[in-house]
Model the fold of this input.
Amino acid sequence: MIYEYVYPKSLKQFVKNPSHESLKELLLTNTGETDFLDFKTKWTEFSKMAKHILAIANSGGGCIIVGVNQNDEGAILLTGLKEDDFLDKADIDNKLANLLPKYLKYRTEDFQFDGDQQNLSDKRFQVLIIEYDPKYVPYTSIIQRNELRYGAIYVRQGTKSLEATNDKLVEIILRKVQSGGSGVNEYTLKEHLDQLKELYEELATQKNTDYAHFIAELIERKKERIRHLLDILPDK
Done:
């Protein structure tokens, strides 16, 4: 998967190659939560977890580390998970299955450190690694439950997962388009038409949401761009 936007370097290395060594490096050099990283002391209500997963997936991918506490001053405590708080991965998948879009990919990895690891001695952690796939973003909430609002698009803003503003939606779409390879101002007619087709396909999957209206607006703008490229005057 694509993790080109993820930072810092230790986080990118971990999500691309999750191992005890790369997690150790991430935990011992980390400076706090970001758009791509969230900490949880233990597993919380799963609709809240789903909101964070959606936000991270829309923001570029990353992970949620369970077993780490970040206090109000930003200090990080590597508390680890107690045995009773360490969940079976199948149970985690079952709890999240009906809360997330089927094309959103994630996985849970278990880590337990032995007794000779600096500040991590005999501690265990679970990590949700969340993929970024420009083909399917933005992911929308598929259910109305607790903190989840049906049809909402969540993004990360520092330490929080919030509904996307219009500016953030534009950023998501531009990132999606740019991941296709061509520069925004260098598209051929075929590339413009392919993008228009993709926008129509995206609109067809949406119900009457703010996002659907946004896509409809992009379609009109793309049609105008194609007319300009072909030097076609608008109908009077």
Notes: Residues 182-236 form one domain. Residues 181-185 have pLDDT under 50 and may be disordered. The beta strands are 37-40, 62-66, 69-70, 76-77, 106-112, 124-130, 154-157, 160-163. The first strand starts at residue 37 and ends at 40.
